[in-house]
Amino acid sequence: MPPSRLASNETGFWAAAQNDPIVRAIVDAISAGRLRAGTKLGEEELGALFGLGRTRVRQALRALSFAGLVRLEPNRGAFVTSPSFEEAEAVYAARRLIESETVREATRHCTANDIRRLRTHCQAQEAARADQPRYIRLLAEFHLLIAEIGGNVVLSELLAQLLPRTALMQALYQPAGEGGGACPTDHHMEIVGLMAQGDEVGAASSMTTHLTRNLRALAITEEPSPPSDLTSALLL
């Protein structure tokens, strides 16, 4: 397995979120709770706010749409996605199938250095709690890191496509004051401990339980939320 290819596939969307100013601003605003579900992302308004042409704006919106964070409606424009409970169930069901296998493979292949990397990553998650956009990004990266250790490129690619959607759900529907309740770091530490013991079955069971708890922690509502003011939400 070529490591460079895996790293590229794992971090593709998150790299775009850092390299494209529009994508980065929208992802950070969603993660911080400033940009609510259903808010319209007007091309002209975004272009004026960032001083960029319509082509660049459309590229950013397409990237966000591919990641599942924005929906594009013909003749209406782009809107922050409003995931339903049924969609959340489907996405988390797919993650349970994928990650029960990636954590098994990671447990079989992990070295002492891999375990140290995972534990260091968990410490970074705890340290980032006050920075919600970074915190949510680190929670997702932890799951990608396990997939990297497992070494299955195809499963890593599939997981990388699903993680932005669950990150959106955590940002939009995690109850205020939960402090990371939709993907708590202590669950991550439990998984790492089982991996360190070489317990494939236990690690897979813990991962499945973890993802099920994540879904149940989301306070998903079908009630439409009032749209955000785009300029204020993007801190521009």
Automatic annotation (TrEMBL):
<dbReference type="Pfam" id="PF00392">
    <property type="entry name" value="GntR"/>
</dbReference>
<dbReference type="InterPro" id="IPR036390">
    <property type="entry name" value="WH_DNA-bd_sf"/>
</dbReference>
<keyword id="KW-0804">Transcription</keyword>
<dbReference type="InterPro" id="IPR036388">
    <property type="entry name" value="WH-like_DNA-bd_sf"/>
</dbReference>
<dbReference type="InterPro" id="IPR000524">
    <property type="entry name" value="Tscrpt_reg_HTH_GntR"/>
</dbReference>
<dbReference type="InterPro" id="IPR011711">
    <property type="entry name" value="GntR_C"/>
</dbReference>
<protein>
    <submittedName>
        <fullName>Transcriptional regulator, GntR family</fullName>
    </submittedName>
</protein>
<dbReference type="Pfam" id="PF07729">
    <property type="entry name" value="FCD"/>
</dbReference>
<keyword id="KW-0238">DNA-binding</keyword>
<feature type="domain" description="HTH gntR-type">
    <location>
        <begin position="16"/>
        <end position="83"/>
    </location>
</feature>
<dbReference type="GO" id="GO:0003700">
    <property type="term" value="F:DNA-binding transcription factor activity"/>
</dbReference>
<keyword id="KW-0805">Transcription regulation</keyword>
<dbReference type="GO" id="GO:0003677">
    <property type="term" value="F:DNA binding"/>
</dbReference>
<dbReference type="InterPro" id="IPR008920">
    <property type="entry name" value="TF_FadR/GntR_C"/>
</dbReference>
